Amino acid sequence: MELFVKKAKKATGRQDAAFQFDSKAEKLKTALPQTVGRVILWIMVAFLLLRGIGSILRPDPVKAINSQVTEFKDALDREFRVASEASAFAEGFAREYLTYKGGDGEEYKRRLAAYAPSRVVSASIDLSNNDRASRVTDTQTVEVQWHSDSQVNILVQAKVVYTISQAVAGEPEVPEAVLAAVTQVDIKEDNIYIKIPVYTDGRRYVVEDLPVFVPRLEKAEVQYTRHSGTAAGEEEAAAINEMLKNFFRTYYEGSDSELTYYMSDPGAGVKGMGGKFKFKGINEVLVYEDSSAGGYIALAEVLVADPNTLQEIRQGYHINIMKKDSRFYIAGFDTRMGNLQYKEDEDNGEK
Fold first, then answer.
1. Residue 252's closest CA among 271, 270, 278?
2. What are the pLDDT digits (tens) for 157-193?
3. Are the CB atoms for 115 and 89 separated by under 8 Å?
4. Dist CA 320 CA 293 (whole Å)
């Protein structure tokens, strides 16, 4: 009996051990998904944390672009300001450099000293053996050439008036007694082109080297064409010619409010000359049908007069005209009679 009880206890012990093992395995199985979930959760947290730190450390692309735009704008503003100020400075120097009179060497150097260092002033024009005079009446900047961030070459056109005694002009070697009695002079005008090297520290300017005379700008060659096409009928052409006479008389001698009567768009804001010139008539007008716009194109050569000198002067216009309710109106005009083919092609949708 005891043997049976012992065997039963042993069997029960084995069952208890098996049960405990199965319980541990079950707990392990039950905890596994939670552990995996925690790992995944921590990985996501770490990823988001790293991403957040990266976004903080990485510059904002919008801010970076705005910063680049601001830097570019500031650089452009500086370049424009410096170019404008350097041009004004160079023009002032050109006036003093090309305005002189024989015998006025000290006064001449004093004027140049406001623009250039002593080495440039001392190497400038020697007036000790000259009795002629030069005077600048007008200057304008033709070109601005950047040599470096602090150096710019300014090409200036100067209109110069020269005063030369007739006796000296005809006879280079004239006795002083004769020269002193000379009162008549020759006056000659010319346009001089001069390149002036300017240095800047960003706010101040100086002519850092001797200026150099350069050739005048060359005249370009151009092929000239005017609009051609189907001529308008005689009746339409005559009516348009009459309308253009009234329009140009108003344009040159009338008021802006009167001009609106002739415009297809009264609110276009076209302004006239307000009586500064007198309308004399139309020398020639050619009227063509404008198939693209359903209207007309007129090429008009207009004759006006300057009331101060009474000089008659020719003007040329390329005019777009439309017809509405039996009346002709100005749709627009260009102050070129020819070489408008590109513009006409563009209006027709061609490039």
1. 278
2. 999 999 876 554 455 555 555 555 555 566 889 999 9
3. yes
4. 9
CB 287 within 8 A of CB 300: no
Cα 63 → chain centroid: 28
H or E stretch including 342?
helix 341-347
DSSP string for residues in 258-291: HHGGGBSSGGG-----TTSSEEEEEEEEEEEEET
Closest CA to 295 of 334, 264, 337: 264
Q: Is 133 left (phi over 0), alpha (psi -120 to 50) or beta?
A: beta
Two structure tokens written together for 287: 């009227």
Q: What's the whole-number average pLDDT of the chain?
A: 82
- Cα 123 to Cα 209: distance, rounded to the nearest angstrom: 10
The model's pTM is 0.62
The helix (run of H) or strand (run of E) holding residue 21 is: helix 2-57
Start-to-end C-alpha separation, the chain: 118
Calculate what percentage of the chain has a pLDDT beyond 70.
Answer: 76
In angstroms, the CA 161 to CA 269 distance is: 41
* pLDDT-based confidence at residue 282 (cuts at 50, 70, 90): very high
For residues 53 and 144, the model is more confident at: 144
Query: What pLDDT digit, counting tens, does each position of 214-258 carry?
Result: 998 888 888 888 888 899 999 999 999 999 999 999 999 999 999
Tell me which H or E stretch contains 249.
Answer: helix 234-253
**Distance from C-alpha of 206 to C-alpha of 152, rounded to nearest angstrom:** 11
